[in-house]
Amino acid sequence: xxxxxxxxxxxxxxxxxxxxxxxxxxxxxxxxxxxxxxxxxxxxxxxxxxxxxxxxxxxxxxxxxxxxxxxxxxxxxxxxxxxxxxxxxxxxxxxxxxxxxxxxxxxxxxxxxxxxxxxxxxxxxxxxxxxxxxxxxxxxxxxxxxxxxxxxxxxxxxxxxxxxxxxxxxxxxxxxxxxxxxxxxxxxxxxxxxxxxxxxxxxxxxxxxxxxxxxxxxxxxxxxxxxxxxxxxxxxxxxxxxxxxxxxxxxxxxxxxxxxxxxxxxxxxxxxxxxxxxxxxxxxxxxxxxxxxxxxxxxxxxxxxxxxxxxxxxxxxxxxxxxxxxxxxxxxxxxxxxxxxx
Length: 342
Known about the structure:
The protein is mostly helical. It has helices at 2-9, 16-21, 23-56, 76-83, 94-115, 122-134, 137-148, 153-160, 178-203, 207-215, 220-231, 233-248, 252-258, 267-277, 281-309, 313-341, and strands at 59-60, 71-72. It folds into two domains: 12-43; 77-333, MetI-like (MetI-like fold), CATH 1.10.3720. The chain contains 16 helices and two strands.
């Protein structure tokens, strides 16, 4: 009898095929497959090329240079990035796009605040303003290249308003105005995306917070400052980070509209010329790494800045939450009182 019990308790040998066919085994295999395949694709098409780019940045080479003939130059490519006017100097143009990004965010937040509440034709305007973001950047480049051409659409509109063609600048050739023309194109395309993100965040704010603010006599601007803005601080931070990093890597508009001519060549446009026209792969790789470090630094600084700006947001939010809880308690007490009287 004891031998029979011992035999039952003895563990059966693990059968891999049987386990794989079982429900539990199939769940584990599917989970591993869904985890491994994306990681493998990410490593193959992102991290591995990035590692190769970092390695290329230490060599003087072309695309067609054999491996055994590549010349190791150490940090020379990185030094050249800061010494060449056409490399690091192109980053100055990012200031134009950063100013445009600020205008774009302010405009998007203003319209989002208005359209988040009941406005006649609000959905139509939301779709109308978001539509440019759905258009290909290359297509937008060709549209505005025609739009800004001398004597065409924009000049014609201004002439209808009373301006003389001879007094109008060359929007894509005059270096005092051409970068602002490209920035306006970028603002027109991307502010709809920011607006939709802001609308989604604003609509998630509890309506009872507005009631609590109205009890304190807060006007619309004060409600925006003390309720809406602190409640959507995460989306504001995200949009600012995306806009600033996008300003540093502007490419489509200057490349398609002007091909980087007349002082409109941004950092990405110059990097494209260095890599594909001059075939200086090592220098272009160093430019990409330098830009990545600058973007990392800007992102960290922006996070620290917004942490400082919104330092009082949590306390204000808690204050209105306490008032909301008090209002709920008062409503519940009134309801129970009426029920008791009835």
